[in-house]
Every structure is written in structure tokens, then in C-alpha cells.
Amino acid sequence: MLVLGLSGAYSFVHCPAATDTNAKRESGRRAQLTNIAAGKAVSDIIRTTLGPRAMLKMILDASGSLTLTNDGNAILREVDVSHPAAKSIIELSRTQDEEVGDGTTTVAVMAGELLSVAEPFLKANMHPTVVVRAYFAALDEAVQHAEKIAVALNADDTEKMEAIVASCIGTKYMHRHSDMLVRIALSAVKTVRDEVDGRIVIDTKTYVKVEKLPGGELEDSRVLDGVMLAKDVTAANMRRRIEKPRVLLVDCPLEYRKAESATNVELTKDSDFRALLAAEEDYVTRIVGDLLAHKPDLLITEKGVSDLALHLLAKANVSVIRRVRKTDNNRVARAVGATIVSRTSEIVDADVGTGAGLFEVTKIGDDYFTFITGCDNPRACTVLLRGGSKDVLNEVERNLQDALCVARNILLHPKMVPGGGAIEMAVAAHLTAKSKTLTDVSAAPYRAVASALEVVPRTLAENCGAKVIRVLTALRAKHAGGGGEDAVFWGIDGRSGVVVDMRTLGVWEPLIVKTQTMKTAVEAAAMLLRIDDIVSGLSKPKGSGDGVGGGGFEED
């Protein structure tokens, strides 16, 4: 039975008659300490992947494929864990990646540290509700203080924009090519930026397609001012290069419509068979006639094209590409200014796209690729990545996706904070000072949140081989008042391990990434601390229904 107490703590109540005799149960302090140990174990896995001097992880999955990366989300989603608390921490990284795209390593490390600093309070018999209440109070104060420190950014300031995206790339494996990736990310995001009902919409997942082609050099990677399809023209005698093409997009089959169910046709004489063939030809000829009435140069369809339709279209000098994915067709429509049509009889001249400058089919390696480029106002694009091997290209794509998300966040929320652990240390110093004004028992866990936030600069110093205690002491002194009004901008150079002004180093991060990291980590830690009973190993009794655990649990 799942019971929700007045304090809000969740508890699984043991039902001996309903559970298996082999069921394992952990309750009280033991359950909480087990959850803390599991959270710390997960955060320790990826702690060494934080910062510009991060180490790589080699992951071999069940199918035998190899992954080399230092991306937190990519690592944790491949880790096979059985403990429910560990799975919860891993889920944090995925949530962070979906929400803001960056900070996937930081959020898992911070959540593990928040659980770790709560352990002494639980061993001292402090109630978890008191700890959780202090955690949420500290979170509210931390977010408010971070917003006060944040610096407004002009989205048209290209230099500052590049500096923020470069800070994201600087901690990745491909930091040596950061200039190229920054340029690609900003160009792609600005291409798909759109304004709908007075608000900015940037949908990079739908309208930015990353195509990876092994071979060539990484410097050959670029953003196309249009789209690329892994398709060739359907017939060999069709044109493979057209300047200023008129593009027509349809999602209906250009062949005789087949019956939805099995159909039997009874023919009594040979003329009936000829009439049946003639009806099919007339139908195909009519729909091709509807298409040719608008004088297209290029026809793209999501469905099949019959041989007769191909013959008629090739005779009219129209190039055809068939069986294109729906998502690719949507990108082409957005890039060339066309409208996807479902019925050929409903086509109007406004549906034909005329925004493309060049249609060209090019052979790269052993495959043919269609390029529709030179678009006047693309609003959709393809990022073409070249590289020596698939492993390198996969890592470049992961790094580029983070850069795209950071660039999108800047344009949607143009506020930035200093990086290098400066914002975490500034918030920690503020929370430490604030905790001295608290007189109740929550002051200690409130101060513990400040201690947990210091894990970011401490880990940066550890990963670059610096003398951690000496560097952190110097950084604390700066933020305690030794740095004056500009103390909040002092952080750790992740390459050399020295305390520097982040404005001089040029390391900035989006405010929304940092606030989301703190919110996600604190909320996850609070949720795990409020669990005081874990029952596992339930089995479904024979002949029972489809309920959870065969009726072992009932939800009240």
C-alpha cells in the first residue's frame, strides 16, 4: 500500500501476505543511507568528465558498439544500474539534456554532493523533512542571487555570443575545433530562428538536421543555406542540376490507388482487361497533368511513383525524388517556401516553392546526395559533418548538439553568468552568510547546500591537477570580500587550475543552464531523502490479475 503522510513523505508499507517471501525490504535510516550511497556512486562515475581537462569514458554496450565520450548524458544512459535511487540520478541527466541541453554532468555531480552532505544530519537523527525544507529555502535564495549576478546580453553582440558557446565547447573532446563548431552552431540557430505571434521560436530538433559523412577533414564541415537529402533522382535521364528550380512537394502516391482491402475483379472478355488498364493509365495521366500544369522543375514526394508517371514527368523535363521522409519534406518546404500538398487537384501556384537557388545531385563516396541550397530565407538547414571515422563524427555530433542548445538558450533568455565555478562559489558565499542569520535547527542543512555547491570549482581544480585545498581557499577568500564588488566574477581556470577573473578569461555561461542545474539537483536530492522504505523483489502470484506485483501493492 502506498501511503502519503501529512509531512509529504512517501512510504511503502510492507504487506507480508501480499509480497513474496523472498522480497527485500529496507526501511528507515538504512533506506535513506542506501539511497545516498547509490547517488554518490553515480556522481563519482562522471565526476572526472567535468571541465576542460576532463577524462573520456569508453563504453561498450550490449550490442558490442563502442562509445568514446565525456558527455554526462551519453555516459549515464549507457550505464546499467539496478538500484532505484541510482536510476533516479541518471534520469536527472536526461532531463537536463532535454530542458537546456548543457550541464548534464554538473547536475549529477551536484545531486550526489547534496545527498552526501545530508548524511551527517540523518545519522544525527535529524528528521528528513527538516533537511528538505532547508534545501528548498536555500534553492529559492540561490536562484534569486544568481539572477542578481546575471549580466544582460545583447543578442546582436556576436563576440559575446561566440564566447558563451565557446565556453560550452571548451569542456568537450572537440575543443580544439571550437571556433568551427561555434560558427556552425550560431549560424544554424540563427537560420531556424522564427517569430510566431510576437515570440521567438527556435526549434533546432525539427529544423536542424545533422548529416554525418565519414571521409574528408573536420574543417570541411559546414552549415548549408538549405537542406541535403540522402537521395538520388529516380530516373537516370532526369536533370541533376537545376538553377532557380520551381519545387513542388506532395505527400500522395503518384500511382494508381490500390484498394484498402482485398478486391476481386471478374473479367468476362479481353476488352474488359484493356479497359481496366486504360482506367489506371487515365488516372495516372490525370494526376501528372495536374502537376505539370504548374510547371515544376523538381518534384519531391513522400510516397511511390509509378513507371508511367516517371515516364511522363521525365518527358516533361521534371526531376523526381520519391520516398522522402516526412521530416525531410517539412524541412524542404520551410527552406524553399513551398507547401506540401495532399491532393494534386488542389494545387495552386502559391504552393510551388521558388526560394531555392540551386538543386544539385552530388556523389560523395559511393552514394548520391541531393543538395537544395542558395535559399533566400531558409528557416531550416542541414549541418554537414565530415571526419575521419564514425566514432569521431558521433562525438562531434554530441558536442554540436550541446552547442546548438546553448546558442538557442542565449537567444531565448539573453542573460549570462560567469563560468569556471564562479557563480557556484558566489551563491555558496551568499548562502553561508545568510545561514548565520538563521536561529533554528535548519541553519546547518541550509549551510550544507552552500558546501555542496562548492563541488563544481573543487572538481574543476581536481581534474586539472591543481592543489585543491590551496586553490579553493584562495577562491573562498576572494568571494568572502577580498575581491571587492567584482568578487562574484572570480572562478577557476579549468586548464591551469589558478584563480582568475572570468571576464578576463572570457568564460561565460547562460543563466538558465545554471538555475536549471540547481533546481533539478536540489529537487532530486530532496525526493530521495524523503524515501524511508524500499521494498523490492516482488513477484506476481499465479492466477492474479495484471496489477502491479500481482496485487502486492494497492494505491490508496
Describe the structure concisely:
The protein is α+β, with helices and mostly antiparallel strands and 556 residues long.
Features:
GroEL; 3 domains; 45% helix; 18 helices; 556 residues; three-stranded antiparallel sheet; disordered N terminus; GROEL, domain 2; alpha+beta; four-stranded antiparallel sheet; GROEL, domain 1
**Can you give the helix content as a percent range?**
40-55%
Structural class: alpha+beta
Taken as a percent bin, the fraction of beta residues is 15-25%
Number of strands: 23
Lateral strand order in the biggest sheet = 11-17-16-12
- By CATH, the architecture of the largest domain is named Orthogonal Bundle
Identify the CATH class of the largest domain. Mainly Alpha
Q: For this structure, what is the CATH homologous superfamily of the largest domain?
A: GroEL-like equatorial domain
Mean pLDDT: 84
Radius of gyration, in Å, reads 30 Å
Poorly predicted residue ranges: 1-21, 544-556
What is the distance, rounded to the nearest whole angstrom, between the alpha carbons of the first and last residues? 7 Å
- Tell me the CATH topology of the largest domain: GROEL, domain 1
Globally, the shape reads elongated
Number of domains: 3
